[in-house]
């Protein structure tokens, strides 16, 4: 029984990693086709790197003292969060969904994950709730929603791949 749950968790995490790859591909396309910059994951690493010292929020994360290894830490966190979200989706939908995935739960969950940047990361980075302190809040919100929608589609596609690889 334990090995079954472990295998399921590994599959769910793999699905989340694949969905994160989809997000990174989306960001690459936006940068390549439209010159749109995406989140600098070094800033995620900087934020996390300040936490052991008790610093959880910043007036502006870009002005905070750099942290050794912040880029690597940020990228690791980006993929670890994606994997964790994959596990959460399967925990919510049940293992049957991973064996026969459908788009709606993945897309809805992906879009719901925008709550993390809106209410945790953006305020902690000094950008305000839902990017309210940025120069173009509506544009920032739309981009976040689109990115998390892509994450949801990536969860579905990742589940399809994991299902085939696992022989479901």
Task: Please summarize what this structure is.
The chain is mainly alpha-helical. Helices cover 73% and strands 0% of the residues. It has helices spanning 2-34, 41-50, 70-93, 95-99, 103-112, 115-125, 137-165.
Q: Main β-sheet: number of strands, strand sense, barrel status?
A: none
Shape: globular
| SSE order, one letter for each helix or strand | HHHHHHH
Low-confidence stretches: none
Q: What structural class do the secondary elements suggest?
A: mainly alpha
Helical content (DSSP H or I, runs of 4+): over 70%
* Helix segment tally: 7
Strand content: under 5%
In total, the number of strands is 0
- Rg of Cα set: 17 Å
Could you please describe the fold and organization of this structure?
This protein is mainly α and 168 residues long. Helix content is 73%, strand content 0%. It is built from 7 helices and no strands.
Record the SSE blueprint.
Layout: H1 2-34, H2 41-50, H3 70-93, H4 95-99, H5 103-112, H6 115-125, H7 137-165
For the structure shown, list the relevant keywords.
single chain; 168 residues; mainly alpha; 0% strand
